Amino acid sequence: MNKPYYFYFDVVTRILEAVRNGAQSVNLSLDLNLSEKIWQIEADRLILDNDTFIDMKKLESISSFENKIFIFQNKELTPVEVRSDGYYKLVPTDGAPTLEINGIKMHRSKDIDPLTDAELKTQLVVKAEDQVLDTCGGLGYSALFALKAGARKVVSTEKSLAVIKIRNLNPWLKTSADARLELIHTDITKEIDRFENAMFNSVIHDPPRFTSATGDLYGKKFYNALFRVMASHSKLFHYTGSPKKIKEKDNFIKNTMKRLRHSGYKDICFYDNLQGIYAKKH
Fold it and tell me: What are phi and psi of 201, to 5 degrees?
């Protein structure tokens, strides 16, 4: 299979503009900002490698899609999206891409890069040689930074097959193949019962925003289960979202912290900059 190249609105706009201006090359990233290089333009074609090119007609056909990423591979342009129980797609940012489900971004991307956000959460709880549980793995950015922090093992669970499909198309994760990472396609609220007591030294619990469908991930039963699989002196980061954007915001955060306290957690506090709760198991 040929190497994939990634195109989206800003990139396509720059290429078409360069062609219109008669430029012979253009400097940009075709791997979603992992790298940047100079690409040659010849006869209304962008030259990708010795025997691969994309013509301007193909690029013009996707030039109106502002928040959609396309992969060019085997001479075909395909959107990075999955339509199943909902509409899932990879969305470009100035850095690493983010995941959008039914129009809702799954990562913070306003005023912060999704990677930076994941790194800050991970730094708060993960230390070298930890065994880490990443409960709602998503695109895998938290798992990636747990590995970079020196984790001995990272167990990353993800319930949605659609999310895993998009995760596998994200070039930022293709560079992170590591034997220490175990990705499990499962519902963590059920899988957690199979984990041994005191198995993990740190937990990154980054569930989707609270709704009737995701309520189990915010419930006392699940918090009790998390507490059981955490070792002594282990740390938890629990994403909740900004209380400013949640109806009855104060009660939502306070009640979440109360349930964690009743499950046995200590040193509980809300981090505004990370939009989540930190807690420890003593």
Answer: -95, -20
Q: Which residues contact 151 (CB under 8 A, 6 or more apart)?
A: 126, 128, 129, 130, 131, 132, 180, 202
CA distance 280 to 262: 13
The two beta strands, 5-7 and 70-73, are antiparallel
Q: Which residues contact 206 (CB under 8 A, 6 or more apart)?
A: 121, 134, 135, 136, 138, 142, 237, 239, 276
Task: Check: CB of residue 100 under 8 Å from CB of residue 92.
Answer: no
Q: Is 250 in contact with 243 (CB distance < 8 Å)?
A: yes
Integer Cα distance of 148 and 100 in angstroms: 25
Residues 238, 141: Cα–Cα separation, whole Å: 15
> What pTM was computed for the model?
0.90
pLDDT tens digits along 42-95: 989 999 998 899 999 999 999 999 999 999 999 999 999 999 999 999 999 989
Q: Which two tokens stand for residue 186?
A: 């499962």
27 token code pair? 């400097």
